[in-house]
Specification:
This protein is mainly α. The protein has 45 helices and 8 strands. Helices cover 62% and strands 4% of the residues.
Length: 961
């Protein structure tokens, strides 16, 4: 075999041929070529995951594709989203010269080489969670502007929590031209933890695959041997390689490297087979690496020993100094280790083992006394670096057996990670501290509190809640620290997870924090905002206790937080005194916490007064608060404000482009649940107005599911109102009443009369339609009592409507007066759609109070619906006018229209263009399903199109209203 190397066959690392994986490669390529896609590549160590994605990247690059690659490491120094940011560094040539979203500017400090291609970074904020949110959005914006691209992140079993959260958020809402490829070892994931930390299902429209790599076949191993050894690769050698490796490519490749090196001494193929067979362990990696280590010169061995102890890719100077060699000896040793395929060049100027398993074998090969001295030398050299790589220093102190020093270093490393926004690394280090059994209660408490604060703001609230519960189960945790951790758990459950049981944890935390009145006050103000389970009755008591707790405090920040919550509750209840409190808020202060709470108070007041019907004031508050909210340090506050402004657009009749604005906000902030819920509610309202009842029901049902657990009742009430109105429009009074019942119970329990969101008139109509007049009257009386003395324009208008419905049959003139008052109220508030609905009710009652008169209010409603694009409501008004003999009946497509659409067919076509089903059209236009089918057939024939492209065909034919 002496001539094997002379034949020029590949013998090292990447030179091995790609065998036995064509089917997996085809699956991977097929998935990433159809973005958006998420591909998971799973397999044990050494099975060939990296080689598979490398081959895919090579193919894609040959097609002009863009592939970015990052890797997770077991000892990574703190750096926010390190594996992803490493990958982004490769994208400089692909960044467009213009059109990069401003949010991507947050990456400029992390990508200094690309800073001139990125927007300027935003002003710094003190709050690490706000900074984390900015970085998440920046990464997504950056990837979105690259065009078609593939992001590969390898070895996710070593991923830090923050990077995992980022990848989970990306996978849940991928940019439309991005494919995400993740590799991992399932057996090395934390017990019971999916690869992304939470169960992941491909969202609608996102493709992908899970590629699980198994062992190579004996034929694959023989092909690998033939490509490496040429004609020396006998069947016997192939069989021996397969038996030792059991199909694991890494082991087979290591053995082949050994055979090539031994070829200089071996006299026959039989000798090579015998050497392979003599190995004690079937997985021959240990023996293969050990044989190569034994053949190294002292300089080569010293370098390899140093690399094994350092355990991370290391520069030449560091390797040489830790090894105790002079520069020339060190360079010679590195060259020898590279030639022997013991080390590889990981990136420019840094060297590491080809595989972590090889590093572990080499580490065990270092004699104990030598190993200890190398760890000591590593600590000395690493402490001289700036900044000090504290994670690595901590690792080496633990290896030296100095547990106290390790704990100190690990805490320092965790603090460093938090300071740079790398909460994932920080969480890993803090868990390591908490897993230790030691008497230092102060350190344990500090670690627990730090970890609790990190977990509260993670993307995977289920995993983070479980983590906080594990911390709470630690009997050594002091009571005050327990209270702090429990408060974090309760806030996470109530705010992120929508789990109202979180308020129970917050109440327990308030008791445990009794000795820290300022922190106890934080728990109390959270409890004051709870509207469920009768808790609203205790809101005043909690607020009084919170104000008493901070009365003597010099902490202006916590006092401002209590004041902001008081304003929130006053706005929620429609207390007229809230306006004077808002005017007295501190707009400037040297204390950032005070300004943060001012931003919170203004935001909450703006959002709640929008629900009350002070729409213009709400818009002024929220629009004027945007900059303050964005820099407040309260994650997502500014985004919540944007969502409420879009809700005000809907209420104000600014419907043109509203769907696109909602989609843009949801795309920019895919991880903020409230944005998606607001979008569902508003899209449900638009769909209902346009006659797309099945779509509206889907949207309202989605919002209702979230509302069941949300800590505020508004979402549940708004979703229920939408569903009740849909069922009334369909003539399903019994279903409408059944849907309204639990919502009304919640309305009464929470005393949310100022923010009933249209539920009052909808429920009264359902009750009257099912013969429950007594229930309807009681509900209206309760509402009147609940609104007495409140400043609630919207609820007052709804009360007029409800009274009008009660009077509709017995006293139609009084009903008309009530409907007229509601109409004027909605006009004054600035809600044209609600004003049109009141005008329609007024117009219908006037047909009884003024028979034969001009139905001007019906016409007014029809005109308003038409201007808004509420085609379903417009069709209902047209139907009413036709029944009065005052509207022109739409033609049935008589021959005079030729190939053009008749008025009725145009109505049908426009509803089709918005995705309406035949049943939606039949209900909205008061037609039979059979008639609609005929109209649809004629529309498609005349336009020469399909249902999916009706809108485009209408524009092409110039037949859009």
């Amino acid at each position: 075999m002496a001539n094997v190397l002379d034949r020029g066959h590949p013998a090292h690392g990447g030179g091995f041929p790609f065998v036995g994986r064509q089917r997996e490669l085809d699956r991977l390529l097929a998935a990433v070529r159809r973005p958006p896609a998420v591909v998971l590549v799973e397999g044990e160590a050494g099975i060939g995951k990296s080689r598979l994605v490398h081959e895919a990247a090579r193919v894609l690059a040959g097609e002009g594709g863009r592939v970015l690659t990052g890797s997770c490491h077991p000892l990574r120094e703190p750096f926010p989203y390190g594996p992803v940011v490493d990958a982004l560094r490769e994208a400089g040539d692909w960044l467009p010269t213009a059109g990069v979203p401003p949010t991507a500017g947050a990456l400029a400090p992390l990508l200094p080489d690309l800073a001139d291609r990125l927007p300027p970074p935003p002003d710094p904020v003190e709050d690490p969670h706000t900074e984390r949110h900015r970085l998440v959005q920046a990464v997504r914006s950056f990837l979105a502007v690259l065009g078609p691209a593939v992001l590969v992140v390898e070895d996710l079993h070593w991923v830090d929590g923050a990077t995992r959260d980022l990848l989970l958020l990306l996978a849940r809402d991928l940019p439309e031209r991005l494919s995400l490829v993740l590799t991992y070892r399932a057996e090395d994931l934390p017990a019971g933890t999916p690869v992304l930390g939470a169960a992941y299902r491909h969202p609608p429209g996102v493709g992908g695959a899970t590629v699980r790599l198994g062992a190579l076949t004996e034929e694959d191993i023989r092909e690998l041997a033939t490509a490496t050894l040429g004609h020396h690769a006998t069947r016997a050698i192939g069989r021996a390689l397969y038996q030792r490796s059991e199909g694991l490519p890494l082991v087979a490749e290591e053995d082949l490297i050994t055979l090539v090196e031994q070829g200089r001494q071996s006299s026959s193929d039989d000798d090579a087979v015998e050497r392979l067979r003599r190995a004690d362990v079937p997985h021959g990696l240990r023996e293969a690496v050990t044989e190569r280590l034994a053949a190294l010169t002292p300089a080569g061995a010293a370098v390899v020993h140093a690399a094994a102890v350092l355990a991370v890719p290391a520069s030449e100077p560091l390797l040489v100094r830790v090894a105790g060699l002079d520069p020339d000896e060190g360079a010679t040793g590195i060259i020898e280790a590279l030639a022997a395929s013991v080390l590889r060049e990981a990136d420019a100027g840094r060297y590491a083992f080809r595989h972590v398993l090889a590093q572990q074998v080499a580490y065990r090969h270092v004699p104990g006394p030598r190993r200890r001295r190398l760890h000591q030398k590593a600590v000395e050299e690493l402490q001289a670096q700036r900044p000090v790589p504290l994670v690595q220093v901590a690792h080496h102190t633990l290896a030296l057996g100095d547990r106290e020093e390790w704990l100190r270093r690990t805490e320092e490393a965790a603090d460093q990670a938090v300071s740079v926004g790398d909460t994932g690394t920080a969480a890993t280090l803090l868990r390591q501290i908490l897993e230790q059994q030691h008497p230092d209660e102060a350190l344990r408490s500090r670690a627990a509190l730090a970890l609790a604060r990190i977990a509260t703001f993670g993307a995977d609230h289920t995993a983070n809640a479980a983590l906080l519960r594990r911390i709470l189960s630690d009997r050594q945790l002091p009571e005050v620290s327990r209270g702090e951790v429990r408060l974090g758990l309760g806030l996470l459950m109530a705010t992120q997870a929508g789990d109202r049981a979180g308020f129970g944890e917050i109440e327990r935390a308030a008791a445990e924090l009794e000795s820290r009145p300022e922190r106890a006050a934080r728990a109390m103000i959270a409890l004051a905002t709870n509207e469920w389970g009768g808790a609203v009755e205790q809101a005043g008591e909690w607020m009084d206790r919170a104000e008493a707790a901070v009365a003597g405090s010099r902490n202006e920040g916590i006092r401002a937080a209590v004041r902001a919550t008081r304003i929130t509750l006053m706005a929620r209840e429609g207390d007229p005194a809230v306006w004077s409190l808002l005017e007295r808020l501190p707009w400037e202060s040297d204390d950032r916490a005070v300004i943060r709470q001012t931003a919170r108070a203004v935001h909450n007041a703006g959002t709640l007064t929008a629900e009350l019907g002070h729409d213009r004031r709400a818009r002024q508050l929220l629009a004027g608060n945007q900059e303050r909210a964005d820099t407040s340090g309260i994650p997502y506050l500014g985004v919540y404000g944007q969502a409420t402004l879009l809700s005000l657009d809907f209420l104000g009749g600014r419907w043109d482009g509203l769907e696109e604005r909602l989609a843009a906000l949801a795309d920019e902030y895919p991880d903020i649940t409230l944005v998606g819920v607001e979008r569902a509610l508003l899209l449900g309202g638009l769909a209902a107005a346009r006659g797309r009842r099945s779509l509206a029901r889907e949207h309202f049902t989605t919002a209702a599911a979230y509302g069941e657990g949300h800590s505020e009742v508004s979402v549940a009430l708004r979703a229920a109102t939408g569903l009740v109105n849909l069922r009334l429009a369909q003539g399903s009074a019994e279903q409408a009443a059944a849907t309204a019942a639990p919502a009304v119970a919640l309305l009464r329990e929470a005393r949310a009369w100022p923010r009933s969101a249209g539920l009052l008139p909808a429920t009264v109509e359902a009750a009257l339609a099912t013969g429950d007049r007594g229930g309807a009257e009681n509900l209206v009386q309760d509402a009147e009592r609940g609104l007495c003395g409140r400043d609630t324009p919207a609820a007052d208008a709804e009360l007029h409507l409800a009274r009008g419905l009660l009077l509709r049959h017995g006293a139609p003139a009084e009903a008309a007066e009530r409907f007229g008052r509601a109409r004027r109220a909605w006009q004054e508030i600035g809600r044209p759609y609600e004003a049109a609905r009141a005008a329609e009710r007024l117009g219908r009652i006037e047909t009884r109070t003024r028979p034969g008169g001009e139905p001007r209010h019906l016409v007014e409603a029809l005109d308003a619906y038409t201007r808004l694009g509420a085609s379903g409501d417009a069709a209902r008004c047209q139907h009413a006018l036709r029944e009065l003999g005052l509207g022109q009946r739409a033609s049935q497509g008589r021959r005079g229209y030729g190939d053009r659409l008749s008025p009725r067919e145009l109505q049908v076509a426009e509803l089709l263009s918005r995705g309406a089903t035949n049943q939606d059209i039949a209900t909205g236009l008061f037609l039979s399903t059979r008639t609609v089918e005929q109209h649809v057939a004629r529309v498609l024939r005349k336009l020469g199109t399909t249902r999916k492209t009706v809108g485009e065909a209408l524009r092409r034919h110039g037949q859009v209203h």
